[in-house]
Design goal:
By secondary structure, the chain is an alpha+beta fold. It has 2 domains: about 170 residues, no CATH class; about 210 residues, no CATH class. The chain is about 55% helix and about 20% strand. The chain contains 16 helices and 13 strands. A 6-stranded mixed barrel has the order 3-4-9-6-8-7. A 3-stranded mixed β-sheet has the order 2-11-10, with no helix packed on it. Strand 7 and strand 8 form a beta hairpin. Helix 9 runs parallel beside helix 15. The longest helix has about 45 residues. The two termini are about 35 Å apart. Its main location: membrane. One of its GO terms (molecular function) is transmembrane transporter activity. Pfam families: FtsX (PF02687), MacB_PCD (PF12704). Keywords: ATP-binding, Cell membrane, Hydrolase, Membrane, Nucleotide-binding, Transmembrane, Transmembrane helix.
Length: about 450
C-alpha cells in the first residue's frame, strides 16, 4: 500500500510539473464524461415525459378515434359536399352492450369553433362530453363546477371554459354567470378549469391537445343545438363534415383485460368500417411498452455517440504520454540503472494515466450533475433571446422542449466514471510498455 501511495504521489508530482499540458489533456476526458451523463440524462427525461403522457391516457383505457380518410365518401348529393366518416353512435352502443369487460365508456364530439364575448373572440376547441370526461382526463377546476348529469339530461346550455379561454375572453373579470356565443347559441359559464400543460401528439393517431383552449358542453346539448354536421370554410371553398362521435374512451377493470378487450373492439369496428378505414384504436398500455423499448434504444444510441468523445480524450492521453516518454528517457535510464524493473516503469506510467483519467472523470461527473441546471439555462435563453412568444405558443416541438426535464440517473455517473478510467488506462498501456522496453544504456545516453 505504501509503495502504491508513493507511486501515485510521484505520478501527481510529474503531472503538476506541466500543469497546462495536463489540464488540456484532461479536458478531453472531462467533456467526454459530461457528454455521456448529459446525453443519458436528456434521454431519460424524454423517456419519462413520453411515458407520463401515455399514462395520462390511462393504463386500463382503450381509445377509439375517428380518423379522417384521405378520400372520404361523399353523400349522395354531390352539391352538398358532405364528408361522412368516423365513429357512429351505433358503434358506441354495440360495443358497450356486447363487451362485458368494459366498466366505463366516455364518448366525446369535438371540433374547432370561434367563441365570442362582447367584442372579444378566439378560436376554441368545442368539446361535447359527459361528466366523467373530467376524471378520465385528470382535469382540475379553478372555479365553479364541471358539467353534471342533470345538465346532460336537460340538454342545458351551460359550458365550462379552459384557463386560456377565461384569460382571453374575460381579462380581469369573473366569467361565471356570464354567457359566451358559439355559433348562434349562447352558453352560460358554470366553471373554469385550471391550467394544464398541453399534451404532445402520440403516434400517428392522437394529435396534441391544448386543454387550456377548450370549451366543454354536454354531449346531448351539442347534438341537439349543433348536430353532427359542421361547415368547414377555407380559402375559396366550403364543405361540410358529418361525424357523430370524435372519440370514445373505454375503461376496463383489470390491466390483464386490456389487450383481449382491445382485440374484440378492433374486430367489431373492422366489421362495420372495413371499407372506409375511418376509425383507429389507441391502447396506452401497448404504447407504454413501446416507449420502454425505445428508451433502451435511445440510451444505447446516445451513449454510443457520447462515448466517441471519451475515445477522443483517450487518444489525447496516449499522444501526450508518448511525448512524455520521449522527454523522460534519461529519467527512465537512471531509474533502471538504480535497480528499477520494467514492471516498475510500466506501473509508474500507468499510474500517471490513471490519475489523469480519474481526475478528469471526477470533474466530468461534477459537471454532469449540473445537467438539469445547464438545460434550464439553455431553455431560458431560447425563450427570452431566440424564440418570440408566438412561436413558443404555436410550436409543438418547443412545447415538448419546454416540458422536458433531464434526469441524471446515479448509475450513469458510475458507468461514465468507470469508462473514463478504463479508457485512460487502455490509452496508457502502449506508452507505458514503450517506456519499459527502453534500453537502460541508450536511455542514459539520451540528451
Amino acid at each position: 500500500m505504501l509503495r502504491l501511495l508513493r507511486t501515485i504521489r510521484l505520478g501527481l508530482k510529474n503531472l503538476l510539473l506541466h500543469k497546462l499540458r495536463s489540464l488540456l489533456t484532461m479536458l478531453g476526458i472531462v467533456f467526454g464524461v459530461f457528454s455521456v451523463i448529459a446525453m443519458l440524462a436528456i434521454g431519460e427525461g424524454a423517456s419519462r415525459q413520453a411515458q407520463r403522457q401515455v399514462l395520462e391516457l390511462g393504463a386500463t383505457n382503450i381509445i377509439v378515434i375517428s380518423q379522417k380518410p384521405a378520400e372520404g365518401s361523399k353523400s349522395n348529393n354531390a352539391q352538398t359536399q358532405v364528408l361522412q366518416y368516423g365513429i357512429l353512435r351505433d358503434d358506441f352502443r354495440r360495443i358497450k352492450q356486447t363487451v362485458n369487460t368494459i366498466v366505463d365508456a366516455t364518448p366525446i364530439r369535438e371540433f374547432s369553433q370561434p367563441a365570442r364575448y362582447m367584442h372579444r373572440n378566439m378560436d376554441v376547441r368545442l368539446v361535447g362530453c359527459t361528466p366523467n370526461y373530467f376524471s378520465v382526463n385528470h382535469l382540475k377546476m379553478d372555479a365553479g363546477r364541471f358539467i353534471s348529469h342533470r345538465d346532460q339530461e336537460d340538454t342545458a346550455n351551460v359550458c365550462v371554459i379552459g384557463h386560456e379561454v377565461a384569460e382571453t375572453l374575460f381579462p380581469g373579470e369573473e366569467p361565471r354567470g356570464k354567457s359566451i356565443r358559439i355559433g348562434n347559441v349562447f352558453y352560460s359559464i358554470v366553471g373554469m378549469t385550471s391550467h394544464r400543460t398541453a399534451s404532445a401528439a402520440i403516434g400517428g393517431s392522437m394529435s396534441g391537445q391544448d386543454f387550456d383552449k377548450d370549451v366543454y358542453i354536454p354531449l346531448d346539448t351539442l347534438q341537439s343545438r349543433i348536430g353532427d354536421e359542421v361547415m368547414i370554410i377555407t380559402a375559396g371553398s366550403r364543405s361540410s363534415e358529418k361525424v357523430e362521435l370524435s372519440q370514445i374512451t373505454f375503461r376496463v377493470a383489470d390491466a390483464k383485460d386490456v389487450v383481449p378487450t382491445a382485440n374484440v373492439i378492433r374486430e367489431t369496428l373492422a366489421r362495420y368500417h372495413a371499407d372506409s378505414n375511418d376509425v383507429d384504436l389507441v391502447v396506452p398500455m401497448e404504447l407504454l411498452k413501446q416507449a420502454e423499448q425505445l428508451k433502451v434504444i435511445f440510451n444505447v444510441v446516445l451513449g454510443a455517440i457520447a462515448l466517441i468523445s471519451l475515445v477522443v480524450g483517450g487518444i489525447g492521453i496516449m499522444n501526450i504520454m508518448l511525448a512524455t516518454v520521449t522527454e523522460r528517457t534519461r529519467e527512465i535510464g537512471i531509474r533502471r540503472a538504480l535497480g528499477a524493473k520494467r514492471g516498475d516503469i510500466t506501473e509508474q506510467f500507468l499510474t500517471e494515466t490513471s490519475v489523469l483519467a480519474g481526475t478528469g472523470g471526477l470533474l466530468g461527473v461534477s459537471l454532469g450533475l449540473l445537467t438539469p441546471v445547464a438545460f434550464s439555462a439553455i431553455r431560458w435563453l431560447a425563450k427570452t433571446a431566440i424564440m418570440d412568444s408566438s412561436v413558443q405558443s404555436s410550436s409543438k416541438m418547443f412545447q415538448m422542449f419546454d416540458g422536458l426535464e433531464p434526469v441524471v440517473a446515479w448509475w450513469t455517473l458510475a458507468v461514465a466514471f468507470g469508462i473514463s478510467v478504463f479508457i485512460g488506462i487502455l490509452s496508457g498501456i502502449y506508452p507505458a510498455l514503450a517506456a519499459a522496453k527502453l534500453d537502460p544504456i541508450e536511455a542514459l545516453r539520451h540528451e
